[in-house]
């Protein structure tokens, strides 16, 4: 199993990616990154699957780059309210939703920040629920179905 990339290295890899792109996609990814941090200063940058990932209480979104789009994929996007209609991709999935940003598209900064905050809140809510659930009883160390020995006393 691969070890996660340290945060400092992840941020450096994201910087590299932005510079490497050197076109509208790099500028768009940099803008998205800035908006993510503005929405939640506690967000953590990671590098997974060869792409930028932003997390707080779990993954909030990824920032993939393609020839014709910068794609922000929200891992729990289907559970988020999207009153501004930012989600325009991966709409048929049961869990994920994505925003494809194309060259020349204007980003609704306020709506994107609100969506990021909602995704963080959902992660933190899910995390607190999982901590408050009672754990199921542990299975005994005896094998299920094996005959029990009776002690002779």
Characterise the protein shown here.
It contains three helices and five strands. A hairpin with a 2-residue loop joins strand 1 (44-48) and strand 2 (51-55). The longest helix has 24 residues, at 109-132. Mean pLDDT is 87; it is low at 141-147. The protein has helices at residues 7-21, 24-39, 109-132; strands spanning 44-48, 51-55, 59-65, 70-74, 97-101. It has a single domain, classed as Aspartate Aminotransferase, domain 1 (Alpha-Beta Complex), CATH 3.90.1150. Helices cover 36% and strands 18% of the residues. By secondary structure, the chain is an alpha+beta fold.
Which key phrases capture this entry?
alpha+beta; 36% helix; 153 residues; 18% strand; Aspartate Aminotransferase, domain 1
């Amino acid at each position: 199993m691969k070890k996660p990339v340290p945060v400092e290295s992840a941020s450096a890899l994201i910087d590299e990616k932005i510079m490497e792109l050197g076109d509208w996609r790099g500028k768009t990814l940099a803008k998205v990154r800035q908006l993510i941090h503005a929405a939640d200063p506690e967000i953590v940058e990671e590098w997974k699957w060869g792409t930028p990932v932003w997390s707080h209480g779990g993954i909030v979104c990824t920032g993939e780059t393609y020839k014709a789009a910068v794609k922000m994929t929200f891992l729990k996007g289907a559970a988020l309210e999207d009153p501004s209609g930012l989600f325009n991709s991966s709409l048929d999935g049961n869990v994920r939703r994505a925003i494809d940003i194309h060259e020349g598209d204007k980003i609704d900064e306020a709506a994107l920040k609100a969506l990021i905050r909602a995704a963080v809140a959902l992660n933190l809510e899910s995390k607190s629920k999982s901590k408050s659930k009672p754990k199921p009883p542990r299975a005994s160390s005896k094998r299920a179905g094996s005959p029990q020995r009776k002690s002779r006393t």
